[in-house]
Amino acid sequence: MELLQSSELTYIQRKMFICNNLPVYRLPFIYEIPENVDLNEVYTALLITLQECPTLQTRYTYDAERRMFNQCYHRLDAIQFEIPHITLDEHPEIYLKQRKEMIDLTKEYPWRTQFAEYEQKRYLLIEFHHICIDGWGIRNFESMFVDRLAGRSRNSPYTDFGFYQRINELQTNKSSFTKEEFLRLSEQNIQVTTNKSHLGRLIKLLKPEQFQHVEQISTALKVTKNSVFQGLWESVLEQTCTGCVYGTIGNWRMSMGAFHEVGCFVQMQSRRIARGRDTLTTIKQISLDNLSAFAKRGKESLTLCTIDHPVVYSYEEDMFNYFQYIPADNLNKFELYIRVFLVNGKAQIEIEYNPSKYSEVQVRFMLDQIDTTLENCLV
């Protein structure tokens, strides 16, 4: 079957491309190389895996005359594939977080690799730009790479640009919401200094008994843990923000399949808070809405907002068995970005915020309200 070798960028990809060369949308990973594995074996396995993924062999362009953002297949040849070797005086995690050079989407592939040595251990450092891959895609890539490294044969997934074209056919740019309806915290008019960070971040780890309570609610209501966390946050946002509409980060795979594909199929959807409902009712309604969206299986267009959502929620679970993800962004994607992250049976809540608009006190209050809201959810 002939591969489809180009497409326009999706709505989300266009936003990422516009941020080219900025410290955002970075996805760096560390893979510790086993002692009995030769670096040449890692090189070969990685090269073959990359060559099996046309959507990673991509160059990005902007056609100013037609006002179109495009992505096009550009074959990766072995002769041009090199993995530099470096020796580190600091842990690879610190090195990746402090790295200043960004991937330039206009000049190179949307990823880069290095072999690193640190304290007699060897690592493969691989960083993707989010424009080419999402969490699900990285899990698929990891599985392909590990199989190749172990000498296990497998059928290559049919990953071309057809899925991107399907997304572009379904998505629309009409908004049914006004700017005034979007959720917002009260801005504090904070004076910005030259040494002030461009990104505020607070992290909260749920206590074991709190996470157990979330699981009890999930079981009692027969909903996902994502629905529980999202319902809790809607209750907090209702108390702390004006407006009623916020953004949720999802994935086209949930409604259109293609779970084996390697690519960036992230989607942004708007959700309206129904004020005045109790938290448990909200949780159940979120679950019903999510199931309804899944049942449509991509047969209806997705309405996208041309106005950026000031407040965005996402839920993620660690899907990687060998790759260690290193958060490294130093720039806000949204004014207020709420992330719930589950790994190894623990729940972490992270809020990224714009420190020139919102104070740490405001954001910390929201995190504290999660405790109270969860405590009051009795099933």
Summary keywords:
globular, single chain, 24% strand, six-stranded mixed beta sheet, 10 helices, Chloramphenicol Acetyltransferase, 379 residues, five-stranded mixed beta sheet, alpha/beta, 16 strands
- Number of alpha- plus pi-helical segments: 10
User: Mind describing the biggest β-sheet?
Assistant: 6 strands, mixed
Query: How many structural domains in the coordinates?
Result: 2
The beta-strand count equals 16
CATH architecture of the largest domain: 2-Layer Sandwich
Q: What radius of gyration results from the CA coordinates?
A: 22 Å
Which ranges are low-confidence, i.e. pLDDT below 50, for 5 or more consecutive residues? none
Q: What's the helix-strand series?
A: EHEHEEEHEEHHEEHHEHEHEEEEEH
Query: How many angstroms separate the termini?
Result: 53 Å
Q: Report the helical percentage.
A: 25-40%
What is the SS-derived class? alpha/beta
CATH superfamily of the largest domain, by name, is Nonribosomal peptide synthetase, condensation domain
Hey, roughly how much beta strand do the residues contain? 15-25%
From the 3D structure, determine the CATH topology of the largest domain.
Answer: Chloramphenicol Acetyltransferase
Q: Average pLDDT, to the nearest integer?
A: 89
The CATH class assignment of the largest domain is: Alpha Beta
Strand order in the largest sheet: 9-16-15-13-10-11
The general outline is globular
Organism: Paenibacillus amylolyticus
GO molecular function: catalytic activity; phosphopantetheine binding
Domain Condensation: 8-377
GO cellular component, one term: cytoplasm
